[in-house]
Amino acid sequence: MSGTPPLGVPERQQQLDRLDDAIIALLQERRLAAGQLRALRSARSLPASELVGENRLLARYREALGSPGTGIALELLALARTGAAATPEPLPHPVPVPVERTPS
Q: What is the pTM of this model?
């Protein structure tokens, strides 16, 4: 065990805030890249999306994260469809994230 004291509640919250900032930045970058890919596919008269690739994404997230991973992958696909080829505006911090819960 190291000599570093364990993190307290405020430090853990700050850690989560930093992770959320990084995740948001990556999601914005992914949305931008997806929009650019859609534009390239369109310029070549290809379908905007590739079903095999989308299914691969769903399986990848499900394998890595279990059942919730499928939902995350679906949201990534939805976010990609709303992406523009322009650089997205930075989101304010903290970002409120609505959580929809479905009964089990």
A: 0.69
